[in-house]
Amino acid sequence: MGDTGVACALLGIDAAGLQGDREVVGPLLETFVLQELKRQASWRTSPIGFFHFRDRDGVEVDIVLEQGASVVTGVEVKAAATVTTTDFRGLRKLREAAGKRFKAGVVLYDGEVTAPFGEGLYAVPIRHLWEAA
Fold this sequence. Notes:
Blueprint: H1 4-11, H2 15-20, H3 22-41, E1 49-54, E2 60-67, E3 71-77, H4 89-98, E4 102-109, E5 115-116, E6 121-125
């Protein structure tokens, strides 16, 4: 279900239900972010492909954006107010797999601060998807 509002309505979940069930929030937040990124990408003149990354060890990246054959960016979505280096595990694996094509890796989270976490890796508040930084 691409529309998180409709998904919540069909599941019978309201705002209080979301606050009380963190396991439901994660997948809905990931879907919301994916749809928002797709909307914003639709404004571009050059297309962006949306994918998911998972290696043979089960390490994943929620959203992988590819621009042509030369640029790869990874996005992890966390329904948490803090970020640790562990949250970048999948993005580091993606960086290794993509090599020179890797542009950046971002963990979008429910916090307040944009912070670097190594070469090309950043923690960014989710609200920056629709608010000016």
